[in-house]
Write a sequence for this structure.
């Protein structure tokens, strides 16, 4: 085989750089990039001077801008002045644009103030440094602020400025209110450049910016403003937040105005009174007029202005009042307008309207019809016939005015439909002419034949036969009043303006003693009631069923013998069947209140109309029969009395016991009566108690009923009647024989009867002496309590003690013929020369309070109630199986 020769090697010369240098070059590039990256990430070092290092922690405290991290505190050093510290902060490169000459730094920490809590998030994340970017060249050295700077005005909303003499009680964060609704806050306050004013910056939320107008008026509503100038006391305060933390309120003038713009400035008034505006009017009063600053000016019941200032002349003869009148009332200021001082009068209307009592007098304005005028002279007193703007004027003639006065109500069915406007003497002083007006929408109630009567105050008459009191509603009792009704006739004629009517003395005279009420009785059910007194009831007082009006009082009169008042009710046709023989009626006038230690304070009222004008309420239990024409019901003083239907009795109690009014009377644990009052009966201290027995307890008012006072008992094992410790003693009762005669007078016993202890058996134990036994001492069988001592007494010959014991029914079978009883009171000691000293005390209770134990034979016969046994001094050694001593028969 022939070998092929190899071709010769071809050698070439490399002219470029070697590939070996690629790796070092790549390493150099990476190293350079790492150096550059480390330089970029190292950040920018700045220095911020703080007053204290409190809250600053190296490598923990962050620099935050709008919640984003911008750097970290890397070191702290104390400055040479020994008063400040310098914080070295490493700022991220991307935050470099925050570092300008006017940039501001501060430490953010939790702050609690009256206006709120700020920086609450730092409780979890720790303190941090806040920054607000500024203008100017870049900087690296800064001085920290002590407080956060004012917030930037870059949020949506309205930014306005107020100028004031004082920023009293205002703080950053104080709220801004419109009609007591929170609409913004105070963001900053500062002195003006001249130092004359304080500038307060407000921020109004976007949804409320439309409320601020160019004519808006702002006032400081911080705290409580009290202006006292008797008889006027003016107290103003805003919300609780404004009282504590300060606040600003504003309102808008009634005329149209464009909305405010950001940057607008407004005056901040000291209070609401200073913020008000009006037309200035000068009014001259006599120097003795009882006026004060702030007194209201009222026209036709509408407040139209106030007294801004008062100036007394040098000779004290004139008082010049400067008024501010609402611009809307400008047309009232004309020649012929009259002003006078209207003083408040005590009435139920004024009691309901607290402003009439707190504000005191006011200035009344009657508008004139002449040319516009701004200076007037006030009348010395109200005119006899003030103007009637609308309604029916009437005149009433009477021989005496009584307690009627200007403002007294004119009543129809106890509802006010008008008022008295004035009065004067006529016929050479023989009679009184009363001017009144019935409001426009009630004028049709008055006809030419309407009958008016004086329903004022209390009518009193006294003679040897008795005393007669008569009154109308509480409203007319206090303020005086006139009532009227219109008899129903075929062709009535409407009353004419200023028609004169006779004013009768009372309703009986006005109604012809009820003869003119025939039309009002048609298709209605007449009910007769008897009452001890009329109270505040009157004709027209409502009759209520479940607080709904179903009728009214039509008439009342004094009984022939003067012992009670007879009242007639008219029940409307749809409700006639609500009344039956079981119905209970009570006086629902006013507010009834009762206070007792057992039940506390109880308030009860029916409708508001009955509370003011008087009224009668009733309820009808089931099972009653239809009401006959001659049936008479009793009118009780209140609802509780109608339910109780109390029967009054008298009880004499021993003088060594305590009893208070209001104590309940109980029968077998149920309350069947109440002690109404207690008084001293004789020199021995005997108590005379007036009590009532409720309807279910009437059967106890019979001879032989046993009354006694139950007192609390405290023993080691139990407390009997613990409620009496707080509320006082109560009275227990046991009824007398079933067929005993009725009685209303009783003499109470000093203790309960011996056989009054429920089911079980009662025993009598004969003992040589009582020892430590007492009422309530326990009876034990095998150390189990089965009864108790209910009492004790000396025997007839005084040679022994009879101890009464009650054994509960579930244990009565344990007492048998041959049972042995012994006294286990105190400690029994037995000394024996050979056995030593032996102590015996069965229970701690018997050691302190005494006790009795017994044992019985297994096959003995049960004993009868009232059986006698001998009470031994100590436990007998011989058991009853062999002792077998029979019980002593009861005597």
């Amino acid at each position: 085989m022939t070998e092929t020769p190899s071709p010769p090697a071809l050698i070439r010369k490399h002219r470029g750089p070697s590939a070996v240098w690629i790796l070092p070059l790549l390493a150099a590039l990476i190293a350079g990039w790492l150096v550059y990256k480390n330089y970029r990430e190292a950040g920018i070092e700045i220095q911020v001077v703080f007053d204290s290092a409190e809250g600053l922690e190296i490598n923990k405290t962050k620099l935050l801008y709008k919640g984003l991290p911008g750097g970290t505190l890397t070191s702290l050093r104390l400055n040479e002045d020994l008063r400040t510290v310098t914080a070295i902060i490493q700022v991220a490169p991307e935050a470099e644009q925050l570092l300008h000459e006017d940039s501001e730094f501060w430490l953010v920490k939790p702050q609690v103030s009256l206006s709120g809590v700020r920086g609450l998030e730092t409780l979890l994340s720790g303190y941090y440094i806040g920054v607000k970017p500024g203008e100017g060249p870049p900087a690296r050295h800064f001085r920290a602020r002590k407080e956060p700077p004012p917030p930037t005005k870059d949020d949506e909303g309205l930014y306005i400025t107020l100028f004031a003499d004082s920023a009293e009680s205002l703080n950053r964060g104080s709220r801004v209110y419109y009609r007591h609704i929170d609409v913004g806050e105070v963001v900053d306050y500062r002195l003006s450049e001249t130092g004359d004013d304080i500038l307060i910056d407000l921020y109004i939320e976007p949804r409320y910016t439309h409320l601020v107008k160019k004519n808006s008026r702002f006032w400081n509503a911080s705290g409580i403003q009290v202006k006292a100038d008797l008889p006027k006391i003016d107290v103003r305060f805003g919300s609780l937040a404004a009282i504590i933390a300060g606040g600003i309120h504003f309102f808008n003038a009634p005329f149209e105005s464009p909305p405010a713009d950001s940057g607008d400035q407004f005056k901040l008034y000291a209070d609401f009174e200073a913020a008000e505006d009006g037309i200035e009017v000068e009014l001259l009063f006599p120097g003795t007029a009882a006026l004060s600053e702030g007194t209201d000016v009222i026209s036709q019941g509408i407040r139209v202005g106030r007294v801004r200032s008062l100036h007394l002349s040098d000779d004290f003869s004139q008082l010049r009042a400067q008024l501010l009148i609402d611009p809307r009332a400008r047309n009232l200021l004309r020649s012929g307008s009259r002003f006078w001082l209207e003083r408040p009068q005590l009435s139920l209307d004024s009691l309901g309207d607290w402003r009439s009592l707190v504000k005191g007098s006011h200035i009344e304005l009657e508008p004139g019809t002449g040319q516009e005028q701004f200076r007037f002279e006030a009348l010395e007193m109200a005119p006899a016939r003030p103007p009637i703007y609308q309604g029916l004027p009437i005149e009433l003639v009477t021989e005496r005015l009584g307690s009627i006065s200007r403002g007294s109500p004119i009543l129809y069915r106890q509802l006010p439909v008008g008022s008295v406007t004035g009065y004067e003497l006529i016929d050479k002083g023989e009679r009184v002419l009363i001017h009144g007006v019935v409001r426009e929408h009630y004028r049709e109630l008055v006809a030419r034949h309407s009958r008016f009567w004086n329903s004022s105050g209390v009518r009193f008459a006294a003679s040897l036969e008795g005393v007669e009191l008569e009154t109308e509603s509480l409203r007319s009792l206090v303020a005086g009043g006139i009532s009227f009704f219109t008899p129903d006739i075929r062709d009535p004629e409407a009353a004419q303006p200023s028609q004169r009517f006779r004013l009768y003395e009372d309703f009986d005279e006005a109604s012809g003693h009820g003869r003119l009420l025939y039309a009002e009785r048609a298709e209605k059910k007449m009910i007769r009631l008897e009452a001890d007194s009329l109270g505040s009831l009157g004709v027209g007082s409502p009759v209520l069923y479940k607080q709904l009006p179903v009728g009214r009082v039509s008439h009342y009169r004094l009984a022939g013998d003067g012992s009670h008042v007879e009242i007639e009710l008219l029940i409307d046709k749809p409700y006639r069947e609500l009344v039956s023989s079981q119905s209970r009626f009570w006086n629902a006038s006013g507010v009834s209140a009762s206070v007792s230690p057992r039940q506390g304070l109880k308030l009860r009222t029916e409708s508001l109309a009955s509370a003011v004008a008087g009224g009668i309420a009733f309820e009808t239990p089931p099972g009653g029969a239809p009401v006959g024409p001659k049936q008479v019901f009793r009118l009780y003083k209140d609802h509780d009395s109608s339910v109780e239907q109390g029967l009054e009795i008298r009880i004499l109690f021993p003088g060594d016991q305590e009893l208070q009014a209001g104590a309940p009377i109980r029968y077998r644990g149920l309350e069947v009566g109440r002690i109404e009052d207690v008084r001293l009966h004789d020199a021995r201290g005997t108590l005379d108690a007036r009590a009532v027995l409720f309807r279910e307890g009437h059967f106890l008012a019979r001879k032989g009923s046993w009354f006694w006072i139950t007192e609390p008992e405290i023993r080691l094992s139990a407390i009997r009647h613990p409620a009496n410790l707080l509320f006082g003693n109560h009275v227990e009762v046991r009824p007398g024989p079933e067929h005993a005669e009725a009685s209303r007078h009783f003499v109470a016993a000093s203790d309960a009867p011996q056989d009054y202890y429920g089911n079980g058996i009662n025993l009598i134990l004969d003992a040589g002496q009582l020892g430590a036994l007492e009422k309530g001492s326990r009876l034990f069988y095998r150390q189990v309590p089965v009864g108790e001592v209910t009492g004790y007494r000396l025997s007839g010959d005084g040679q022994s003690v009879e101890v009464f014991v009650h054994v509960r029914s579930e244990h009565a079978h344990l007492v048998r013929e041959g049972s042995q009883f012994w006294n286990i009171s105190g400690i029994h000691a037995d000394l024996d020369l050979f056995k030593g000293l032996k102590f015996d005390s069965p229970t701690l209770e018997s050691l302190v309070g005494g006790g009795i134990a017994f044992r019985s034979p297994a096959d003995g016969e049960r004993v009868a109630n009232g059986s006698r046994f001998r009470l031994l001094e100590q436990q007998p050694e011989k058991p009853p199986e062999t002792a077998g001593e029979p019980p002593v028969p009861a005597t």
Remarks:
- The domain at 279-377 is CATH 2.40.30 (Elongation Factor Tu (Ef-tu); domain 3).
- Residues 228-233, 460-469 have pLDDT under 50 and may be disordered.
- Residues 22-41 form the longest helix (20 residues).
- The radius of gyration is 49 Å.
